[in-house]
Design brief:
Blueprint lengths: L2 H24 L8 H47 L4 H15 L27 H4 L4 H10 L7
Helix pairs in contact: 1-2
């Protein structure tokens, strides 16, 4: 539905309002001052109210569907044109805000959060195999399989 439906609804209400005004003028005649004629006016207003509610609910549902489709279309467009690196600008902006508030930076390596366990500071890495995580058993296997070198 579109804006024309709202115009039609407004026109419908104006026309029914004019009809109710005519009924009110007709009720001034002594022949029409009966309970049944007043009840007809009340029925007319009730049916107008029910019709308005039904039409407005249909318009509301239509607007929600159109709004949902428009939102999905906008989000697809934003995903299409958004630069993935924009997140870095957002992070930099947030860091400036944090610094202005006197809060510490959240960017970088926070060594205080890591637990570095050093059992014996005199213990150092003996060979390149230790750096790569070899155990003593694998080191023995490598040493026995290694070719002997001449010591000149």
């Amino acid at each position: 539905m579109d804006h024309i439906a709202y115009r039609h609804l407004a026109s419908f209400n104006r026309s029914v309002g004019a009809a109710l005004n005519l009924l009110q003028k007709l009720s001034e005649y002594p022949e029409l001052q009966t309970d049944s004629f007043l009840a007809y006016q009340a029925y007319f207003r009730e049916h107008l109210s029910n019709a308005n509610l039904s039409i407005l609910e249909a318009l509301h549902d239509s607007e929600e569907r159109i709004g949902g489709a428009s939102c999905r279309e906008r989000l697809a467009y934003e995903r299409k044109v958004r630069d993935p690196d924009d997140c870095y600008f957002e992070v930099m902006k947030r860091e400036r805000e944090r610094l202005d508030l006197g809060l510490p930076s959240l960017i970088g390596i926070r060594l205080d959060l890591r637990q570095i366990a050093v059992e014996d500071p005199s213990e150092e890495v003996d060979s390149e195999a230790d750096v790569h995580g070899c155990t003593d058993e694998t080191r023995k296997i490598v040493e026995t399989d290694a070719p002997e070198q001449d010591q000149d």
